Amino acid sequence: MLTLKTLLRATPHPVRARALLQCRTTVTRAILETDEFGNRRKNVAALVRATDGDRFCTIMFYDPAKADLVQSRVWAACSCPYFCFNVETVNALHKSCDVINSNGELPLIRNPRMIPHFCKHLVALAKFAIVAKAKEVDKTAPKQGHRPKPEFGEGPTAPTKKLPKVKQYTKKPVKPAPRPLAKPHQPLKKPGKQPARPWEK
Ligand SMILES: [Zn+2]
Questions:
Q1: Share of the chain above pLDDT 90, in %
Q2: Are strands 24-34 and 135-136 parallel, antiparallel or unpaired?
Q3: pLDDT of res. 155
Q4: Exposed (0-12), middle (13-18) or buried (19+): which is 170, by Cβ within 10 Å?
Q5: How many angstroms does the Cα of residue 54 sit away from the middle of ligand 1?
Q6: Helix H or strand E segment including 128
Q7: Ligand 1 centre and the CA of 34: distance in Å?
Q8: Which one in 8, 108, 192, 195 has a CA-CA gap of 20 to 30 Å to 70?
Q9: What is the C-alpha separation between 179 and 140, in angstroms, rounded?
Q10: Is 67 exposed, middle or buried (0-12, 13-18, 19+ CB in 10 A)?
Q11: Span 66-95, pLDDT tens digits
């Protein structure tokens, strides 16, 4: 596995310049964890927005206790075509990456000297990954709200929380609404004295 310093130094100057000019980085994950082989690592992921699109990058420091993380061995990957076609397989030979997006063929034309290095996105992420505050994550602890799967043949586990009883719905006979009482008959108003009609004058 190569160190971050080695990979950054081997990155061509134009690529490093593009990292400065074209990329904006948003760190989406920074955790301290133990991998499946028991190695401690600082795992930093980010969304890197460049002028030619958004890419997802990951840098994992395998010497997280080092005072200067530039000297730490790293595993790094990016989803961009440059990384896929120029360096992914070469970095994978040095165990600083895995064959993820490429077909695993060596970049005989694009990187004939087989120099492991970074793409602009990873260069942009590197400085943020070094300073990112990582939270300790215990992978063995069960997640909150997670219920262990029942063993084979054990049958379904009893629910931990009793559900409230659901009120049974029964159809109630509908009573016809009482009809409003008829208003008592009101006698017609007695007509008062009519004004004299003009022709009667
Ligand atoms: Zn990239």
A1: 58
A2: parallel
A3: 56
A4: exposed
A5: 9
A6: helix 120-131
A7: 26
A8: 108
A9: 71
A10: exposed
A11: 999 999 999 999 999 999 999 999 999 999
The residues pairing with 25 across neighbouring beta strands, listed in sequence order, are 48
**What predicted TM-score, i.e. pTM, was given to this entire model?**
0.68
Strand 74-78 and strand 40-50: the pairing is unpaired
Task: Give 139 Cα–ligand 1 centroid separation in angstroms.
Answer: 28
Q: Taking the CA atoms of the chain, what radius of gyration do you get in angstroms?
A: 38
Q: What local confidence, expressed as pLDDT, does residue 167 receive?
A: 76
- 81 is written with which tokens? 């075509």
Give the distance (Å) from ligand 1 centre to CA of residue 64: 23
Q: Per the structure block, which two tokens stand in for 84?
A: 């896929």
CA–centroid distance, residue 20 to ligand 1 (Å): 13
DSSP 154-184: T-PPPPSSPPPPPPPP-PPPPPPPPPPPPPP
For residue 196, how far is its CA from the centre of ligand 1 (angstroms)? 105
- pLDDT for position 162: 72
Q: What is the pLDDT of residue 109?
A: 92
